[in-house]
């Protein structure tokens, strides 16, 4: 079902620490433009999808008239990099973006495993559960094969050719994000949070049975629209102003200069909701995370997390 990815607790903790001193958190966002060039911007972190960090989906907002919006429509692949200066921690993320705007929202398929596949899964036996519980991680650290021992982070990021293919923004995604209308107790019954299952149920077999009985659904069209409005309502007055200004990147004329001045002085004759038609929410569906912790005293550590299927993740410890 829906559960925190193994990288998420460290990431969320770093966000909280950074926000103690900062009004907002910015990060570098990169995608590919129509000519094949990398295109990088600084964006502002706007929280998690549906204000629920267990979705593992990161949000920022953009203008529908911007170049990056048009680029993402054609090629949804992205990389994002967060660096937390107070903690000396870096999170590089890779995946596919989706947008919420007028008539456009993510189409998600939640992978449902049949009973035979679930019951026979080698990772889901009780011994694996115990090992995950002892390690304190939602996913075990992978033991590399001799062939993998000299693999680099770059290799781990790019060995899935299907993930590397260009995907338009309206392609369906297989990602576990459950409708906000599903009761919280069912969302919390995560199939991949095996440690929690063992703590809350008599046996893993019982947990499997509960998993198979639940029929979880992705968000509805109405819920996507509500999420866009929620994000808009969280924007400051000055941030909302940017969406009613002339097209970003267009040449500045005398007429546009006068319009910008009137908007800045709040005398342009529009209401606080003006500009919403240009407002879009970008959802970052993360598939790979490279987490670098530059610890005190030179005790550095680095992990790479790869999403496999559903909300299953694999963790690699790599050289810092």
UniProtKB/TrEMBL annotation:
It comes from Dekkera bruxellensis (Brettanomyces custersii). GO terms for molecular function: FMN binding. Residues 131-149 have a biased composition (Polar residues). Residues 116-127 have a biased composition (Acidic residues). Gene3D superfamilies: Electron Transport, Fmn-binding Protein, Chain A (2.30.110.10). PANTHER family: AGL049CP, PYRIDOXAMINE 5'-PHOSPHATE OXIDASE ALR4036 FAMILY FMN-BINDING DOMAIN-CONTAINING PROTEIN. Residues 5-100 form the Pyridoxamine 5'-phosphate oxidase Alr4036 family FMN-binding domain. This is DEBR0S1_29932g1_1. InterPro entries: Pyridox_Oxase_Alr4036_FMN-bd, Split_barrel_FMN-bd. It comes from the Eukaryota. It holds the Pfam family Pyridox_oxase_2. SUPFAM superfamilies: FMN-binding split barrel (SSF50475).
């Amino acid at each position: 079902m829906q559960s925190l990815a193994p990288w998420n607790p460290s990431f969320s903790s770093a966000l909280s620490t950074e926000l103690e001193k900062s009004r907002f958190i910015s990060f570098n966002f990169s995608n590919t433009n129509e000519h094949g060039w990398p295109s990088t911007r600084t964006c502002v972190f706007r929280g998690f999808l549906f204000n629920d960090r267990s979705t593992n989906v990161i949000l920022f907002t953009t203008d529908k008239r911007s170049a990056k919006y048009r680029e993402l429509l054609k090629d949804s692949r992205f990389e994002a990099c967060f660096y937390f200066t107070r903690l000396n921690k870096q999170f590089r993320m890779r995946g596919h973006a989706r947008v919420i705007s007028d008539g456009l929202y993510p189409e998600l398929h939640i992978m449902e495993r049949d009973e035979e596949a679930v019951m026979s899964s080698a990772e889901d036996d009780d011994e694996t559960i115990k090992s995950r519980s002892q390690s304190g991680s939602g996913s075990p650290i992978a033991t590399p094969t001799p062939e993998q021992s000299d693999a680099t982070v770059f290799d781990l990021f790019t060995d899935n050719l299907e993930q590397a293919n260009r995907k338009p923004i309206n392609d369906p995604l297989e990602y576990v994000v459950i409708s906000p209308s599903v009761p919280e107790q069912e969302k919390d019954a995560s199939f991949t949070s095996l440690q929690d299952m063992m703590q809350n149920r008599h046996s893993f077999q019982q947990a499997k049975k509960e998993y198979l009985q639940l029929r979880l659904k992705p968000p509805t069209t109405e819920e996507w629209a509500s999420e866009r409005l929620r994000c808009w309502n969280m924007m400051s007055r000055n941030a909302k102003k940017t969406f009613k200004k002339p097209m970003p990147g267009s040449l500045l004329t005398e007429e546009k200069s006068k319009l910008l001045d009137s908007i800045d002085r709040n005398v342009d004759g529009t209401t606080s909701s003006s500009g919403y038609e240009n407002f879009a929410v970008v959802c970052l569906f993360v598939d790979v995370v490279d987490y670098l912790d530059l610890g005190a005293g030179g005790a550095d550590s680095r992990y790479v997390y790869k999403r496999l299927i559903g909300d299953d993740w694999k963790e690699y410890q790599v050289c810092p």
